[in-house]
C-alpha cells in the first residue's frame, strides 16, 4: 500500500517586458542561465514567451516550498537581467495570441504541424501536480475516484478571466482554449491498468501518437514517472496558493488510499455529472458553488471546503499540511486569482487608468510576494 505520497510541481510562466508589460520572447541567454542554475528543472515551453519549471520529487510540502521558491526566484533574477519579469497566470490580460511565435524545437514543430491552427491559440499556462503512486494497478483504481475532486481544484485555482483584453465572463478561460485540443478533458474510467494500456496503446500502435505524453486529460498517469498527474489547475500567481493546491492533491491521494485499506472507495459518478461541476468551476470559480451529488444540492465552496477539510484532517495532519489546506478555505471565502484580477481591473477603470496594465502589475507583485 502507498506510503510516501511524494509530490512534484510543474509550473508555466509568461515573460513580460518590465516597461511595456507586453509579452516578450525569452532570449537564449536567459534559458541557458536558468538551466545552468537548475539543470533539468527549467525548460522552454511551446511559445517563446513562456518558460516552464519543475520541482524534484518531495515527501514534504516544506521541501517542495524551498525548491519551488528557488525556481521562481531564479527565473525572476535571470529574467531581470534582460529587463523582463515573469508572471504566473494562465492567460495574459491583454496580449494577442496572433502576435506570438512557437519555440523552434523539433518537438514543438511537430506539435504545431499535428494541431494546425488550434496550436496557435495556445497562449495559456497551467500547473501540474504529480503524486507518487508506485503500483500501476493502484494508479488505475485511484484515477476515477480522484476525478470527482478535479472541479474543486479548478474552482480554487482559476486565474484566467481575461483574453485579448476582454473579460470573458469565465474564471478559467484557459480551459476553453485547452479543450480545443484532442485527448483532453476528464479522463475515461478504466477498470484496470491493463485496460488503460490496451486502450491508449491502440493510438500508439497506429502511430497517431508516439506515446502517452500526447494524452492531455485533466488527470493522467504520467508517462515518465510513477505518478498520477493532475493537470486541470490554472497556474497560481502566488507561491503559497500553488503549494496549497499541491497539498490538497497529496492529502486527497492519501485519503483515498486510506479508504482502500479499509475496503472502501469514493463513489463513482458518471463523467456527465462531474463534467457539469467542471463547467461550473470553469465559469464561476468559487462564486456559485458546485453540485453535491450525494444529497443532490448545490453547495457554496465554503461549505464544500469545510466538509473536505473534515475529511482530510487526518491526512493533512499526517502530512504536515494543515495550514496549506486551511488556506484553500480562505480562497473559497474571499475569492481566487480571477476574483482578485477583476477587482484590480475594476478599481483601475474607476481611477481612469489602463486596467490591463494594472492587472499585470498586480500579477508581478503577487509572483514576488512570497519569495
Automatic annotation (TrEMBL):
Ligase as a keyword of this entry, yes or no, is: yes
Protein name per UniProt: Putative glutamate--cysteine ligase 2
Keywords, ordered alphabetically: ATP-binding, Ligase, Nucleotide-binding
One molecular function GO term is: glutamate-cysteine ligase activity
Give the family from UniProt.
Answer: Belongs to the glutamate--cysteine ligase type 2 family. YbdK subfamily.
- InterPro entries, per this entry? GCL_type2/YbdK_subfam, GCS2, Gln_synth/guanido_kin_cat_dom, YbdK
Enzyme class, UniProt record, top EC level: ligase
Reading the lineage from the top rank, the first entry is Bacteria
Query: What's its catalytic activity?
Result: L-cysteine + L-glutamate + ATP = gamma-L-glutamyl-L-cysteine + ADP + phosphate + H(+)
Q: What's one Pfam family the UniProt record gives for this protein?
A: GCS2
What organism is listed for this UniProt entry? Ruegeria sp. PrR005
Which processes are annotated in GO (biological process)? Answer: modified amino acid biosynthetic process
What this chain does, per the entry, is described as: ATP-dependent carboxylate-amine ligase which exhibits weak glutamate--cysteine ligase activity.
UniProt keyword ATP-binding, yes or no: yes
Q: What is its EC number?
A: 6.3.2.2
List, alphabetically, the NCBIfam families matched. Answer: gshA_cyan_rel, PRK13515.1
